[in-house]
Specification:
Elements: E1 17-23, E2 42-47, E3 53-57, H1 64-74, H2 79-87, H3 95-110, E4 121-125, H4 131-138, E5 142-147, H5 150-160, E6 163-166, E7 179-185, H6 194-201, E8 205-216, H7 218-221, E9 237-238, H8 241-250, E10 253-262, E11 268-276
Parallel strand pairs: 4-5, 4-7, 5-6, 7-8
Antiparallel strand pairs: 1-2, 2-3, 3-9, 8-11, 10-11
Helix pairs in contact: 3-4
The structure holds zinc ion.
């Protein structure tokens, strides 16, 4: 097997881990990728300082987030069919509907002091199926999607009717601009260096704007055992309340609030609302 070790460390920067789960085969329900279909060897470690979890393995996953991710994740249904199935869920069964309600609530409070002359702008990083922006567009926001997979970008343009950028947020340099809201919905857990990604967001959010971050909550999920989807192979990082706060602080943001939720889909999730540190709000 072509192996590419990935260096993953706790965002708190300390060393000292304890082994929590050891896998010799994919847990039930985990997507089977080409690279993980044989010789499965992976473990979950917990940082002894801040309670953060990391997934450690040396199977090759170089192309996981370009074409292979959508191939493996949505091959059976296709993007548009998955999109239509999810947007037709009743509101109380939809993680996204509740997420959008919470984001709009926070935003109404946050922008209260500055009457709006034009629609607020949002950039959704790792937009995927575009469910979040579909609802934000309905709420009157000026929406832009960003995704490394061209199919997600075409889907956002054609099916949702919004602007979309084909890029990897970590490496894009030109023309991205600034927005009132940057959203990282279940994104930071997928990258080896979440602080590098969140640091970059500082340059693309207005000084009066804010950032929404949503990540898997390992501190809650760990009690339910190794089969929880929060610990699936796609995730390098699974957060604690403390490690999420530290990630945000070390990336140049002030944490306005972190909330612990269990979503209708049964996911354990942490939601963070952040403002750039330079902001005096
Ligand atoms: Zn730590």
């Amino acid at each position: 097997m072509n192996k590419t070790p990935i260096s993953v460390r706790c965002p708190c920067g300390q060393s000292g881990y304890e082994s929590v789960f050891i896998y010799t085969a994919p847990p039930k329900g985990e997507t089977i990728f080409l690279f993980s279909s044989q010789g499965y060897d992976r473990k979950i470690l917990r940082c002894q300082h801040c309670g953060h979890f990391i997934s450690v393995q040396d199977m090759n996953r170089d192309e996981l987030y370009s074409e292979n991710y959508i191939n493996a994740k949505y091959a059976e249904q296709g993007l548009e069919e998955s999109f239509r199935r999810i947007i037709s869920l009743p509101p109380n069964q939809s993680d996204n509907t509740l997420r959008v309600q919470r984001v709009l609530d926070f935003s109404r409070g946050y922008f209260l002091a500055s009457p709006l002359e034009k629609p607020l702008t949002v950039l959704d990083i790792g937009s995927g199926l575009g469910i979040f922006l579909y609802r934000m567009k309905s709420a009157g926001w000026d929406c832009t999607a960003l995704d490394p997979d061209i199919r997600a970008v075409e889907h956002a343009k054609k099916i949702i009717g919004i602007q979309a950028i084909h890029a990897d947020f970590l490496t894009i340099n030109d023309g991205l601009g600034q927005y009132d809201l940057l959203a990282f919905n279940k994104v930071l857990e997928h990258v080896a260096d979440p602080i590098a990604m969140l640091k970059k967001a500082v340059n693309h959010v207005h000084s009066t704007g804010w950032v929404y971050v949503e990540v898997p909550d390992g501190e809650q999920a760990v009690w339910d055992g190794p089969e929880r989807e929060e610990f699936f192979i796609e995730h390098h990082h699974i957060y604690s309340f403390t490690s999420l706060a530290m990630t945000c602080r070390l990336s140049g943001f002030t944490v306005k609030s972190i909330e612990r939720v269990r979503e209708p889909s049964n996911k354990y999730t942490l939601r963070a609302f952040l403002t750039p540190m330079r902001s005096c709000r």
